[in-house]
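Sharing a chain and its predicted structure for anyone who wants a worked example. Both blocks are below, sequence first, tokens second.
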Amino acid sequence: MSLMTVSEVASFLDVQEIRVERLERESLLIAKDKDVEGKPLFAREDVEKYKVLAERLGGI
């Protein structure tokens, strides 16, 4: 399992970092771990699945 930082997820989804943090708070993207600063880390597979679902529903 490959973990992605908030900035990597934001870049992958083409959104701002604050949006990724909000998705995590709202449990739309589930963090698998926290980094040394306490920021969430996400599984690459989960982020890819979220992107597909969001595109099907009309966008992120």
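Comments welcome. Helices lie at 6-13, 17-25, 44-56.
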